[in-house]
Design brief:
Blueprint (H helix, E strand, L loop, with lengths): L1 H32 L3 H35 L2 H12 L3 H17 L3 H5 L1 H12 L2 H12 L17 H39 L1
Length: 197
């Protein structure tokens, strides 16, 4: 039960990372044509939100790893420990640390304003190292044209990809709005407490 909750929480957080990457690319394109303060405010709040999500992701990932070690059988636990501290330890630790580092670097104004860094970070948040390895290895295989199909096995067809991306971005922006509203309320409460003292 705990494992499935943590796994689902981790997947939701990963969706936020990819949605942030898509939103950032969309923001950078729109900012070329539209010079509005509203877009800048949304971008600033989006950066604050993804920095918060990066911390939450790291906490959930650490707890999920500890729970995995605790609830697994001896053989599975040894396998996981070997992956964590064995010969290829970097494969286990690299991706979560990259995501955490990127989200925390977005706290700095200089990085937020640098278009090249933002594009690189967006790409790294959208496509994980595991996906990159799969893509690169699939280009090196000898595929026959008869094995090519127009649709994939995940149930997401080309006509639905646009809707999926639109839904991801919409849910992400709604979450940013909720996060902003909560943080504003907290600031107001702190200001009231300071005035009362």
């Amino acid at each position: 039960m705990i494992q499935s909750v943590l796994f689902n929480s981790e997947l939701i957080l990963l969706d936020f990372f990819s949605a942030y990457g898509l939103t950032t690319i969309l923001f950078l394109i729109l900012s070329l044509f539209i010079k509005k303060n509203f877009l800048k405010k949304v971008d600033v709040h989006s950066n604050h939100f993804i920095s918060f999500i990066g911390i939450v992701y790291l906490i959930v990932w650490i707890i999920a790893t500890i729970v995995e070690l605790y609830f697994r059988e001896e053989e599975s636990r040894n396998y996981l420990l070997n992956r964590m501290f064995g010969k290829y330890w970097f494969g286990f630790w690299l991706q979560p640390l990259i995501w955490f580092s990127i989200t925390q670097l977005l706290r700095f104004k200089t990085i937020q304003k640098n278009i090249l860094f933002r594009l690189i970070f967006s790409f790294l948040l959208i496509i994980s190292i595991e996906k990159m390895v799969i893509i690169f290895t699939s280009f090196h295989r000898d595929y026959l044209p008869s094995s090519w199909t127009m649709y994939n096995d995940s149930g997401i067809y080309p006509s639905n990809i646009f809707l999926v991306l639109l839904m991801k971005i919409s849910i992400y922006l709604l979450s940013v709005r909720i996060y902003f509203a909560i943080s504003q309320k907290i600031k107001e409460l702190k200001a009231r407490k300071a005035n009362l003292q």
